[in-house]
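To assess whether ligand presence alters the predicted conformation, the chain was also submitted together with 2-amino-3-ketobutyric acid. Input:
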Amino acid sequence: MGNSTNRVIVTGAMGQIGSELTPRLRAIYGKDNVLATDIKQPESEHEGPYEVLDVLDREKMESMLKDYEIDTIYHLAAILSATGERNPDLAWRINVNGLHNVLDLAKEHGYRIFNPSSIAAFGPGAPRDNTPQNTIMKPTTIYGVTKVVGELIGNYYFAKYGVDVRGARLPGIISNVAPPGGGTTDYAVEIFYEAIKNKRYTCFLNADTMLPMMYMPDCLKAFIDLMNADLDSLIHHCDFNLAAISFSPIELAKEIRNHIPEFEIVYEPDYRQQIADSWPMSIDDSAARDEWGWSPDYDLPAMVEDMIRVLSERHRKGTL
Ligand code: AKB
C-alpha cells in the first residue's frame, strides 16, 4: 500500500488546527488541491476551494469527495472536552457518527485518513506521569469516550478493510491564529491574549494543574510527518501518544512574566478542573519517536517567546 497524497480535504477547516493546517497543506500540495470544509461559511476570503460541509451528511460528503477527486482526508471536525460535557449527545454524533461516515467512505473508495485522538482518551485509571502508550483507557468525559471509540474503530478499519487511517493523541495545542473552542486546555491560549491586552488573567484551572501541551508548529509537523511515514514502519495506527511540553498554569505564568513582568494571574477553577484532573500530566511518546521519527522543536521558553512576539506585534498594529 502506498501513501502518496495529491488531493486533500480538511473537515473542520475553520477550527484552531484547521485554520493553520489548511494553508500548510496548500503550500505543500498546491492551493487548488486542498479543499477546506466546515459547518459554517468562512469569515474571510479563502485562498483556495471552500465548501460548507456537515460531517453528518454522508451523501454530500460522498459527492464532494468524488467531485474534487480527493485521496486524503484530514478529519478535524470534532466537539472538544468542555463543550462535550455540556452536550454529550452532540459530541457523540459529531465525533463518532461523523468519523464513521468518513471511514465508511474510505472503505468504499480507498481514501487515506488522518483522525486526531487526544490525551482525553486516558482516564483516572491510567498512570498520570509519563502515561504509557498502552495502558488502561477508561475516560470519564464523553469526549474521551468518543476518542477511544475513534481509535478502536480506526484500527479496526485498518485491520479488517485495509483503510490507511492514522492518528495521534494530541495534547493541548497552543496557537495564535484561530482560538481553540470548547477545550479544557484552552486556558493556555487565552492567557497570552489577556497577558498582552490586560496584563491579567483569571484561570479556570488550579495553579498546579499539570497538563501535556504542544505549540502549533510542532502539531502541524506531527500531522504531516505521520501521514508521510512509510506504512510498513507503523506498528500503531490511530493511537500514537504524542508529547512536547508539560506545564502547569503557575509555571506558564512565571515564563510569561519573564516577558511581561507586571502580568498577574488569579485562579477560579470551574467544572473543567475535574476534567483536567482525570487526564495525564505527561506522556511517554516513544512509539511515535521509534515508528516515525517524532521529535518536537519547541520547549516552554521557546513557545512562550514566540507566542508573545507574534501577539504583541498584532497588538501594536491594533489587530489583536
Ligand atoms: C481539549 O482540551 O478538549 C482538547 C484536547 C486536549 O483534546 N484541547
